[in-house]
Design brief:
With 116 residues, this protein is an all-alpha fold.
């Protein structure tokens, strides 16, 4: 189990390094393509592009965790287990009508009233 966790952590670290390098590369080339001609600024290096990416991430995006994956799923599974079959069917039928989409075996094709 520990070797699996090690490889998972290693894979995540490699992905983070590759993503940072890719973002730095893209930022550097976009800056050097646009900024010197548009605003008469000097071209930047790869290290400066990484610094600019980090600065933007701190100021605008932050480093927060995207939660909601497993915790939300576990919560819904617990709620589903406590529902009676009638409540489960009522939930399913309510979800079929969400946002105007119809799905499932009783779905009817949508017609646009403007085309009639």
């Amino acid at each position: 189990m520990k070797t699996y966790r090690f490889w998972k952590v290693l894979k995540i670290c490699v992905l983070v390094v590759v993503a940072a390098a890719l973002f730095g590369f893209v930022i550097m080339h976009l800056w050097n393509w646009l900024m010197p001609t548009l605003f008469n600024l000097v071209p930047i290096t790869f290290a400066q592009a990484l610094g600019l990416f980090l600065l933007c991430k701190i100021l605008l995006g932050g480093f927060h965790r995207h939660s909601g994956g497993r915790g939300w799923k576990r919560h819904m599974e617990e709620r589903w287990a406590q529902m009676t079959p009638e409540q489960q069917e009522r939930f399913r039928s309510g979800m079929r009508g969400r946002r105007g989409c119809r799905f499932g075996p009783d779905a009817e094709p949508k017609t646009d009233p403007g085309t009639l």
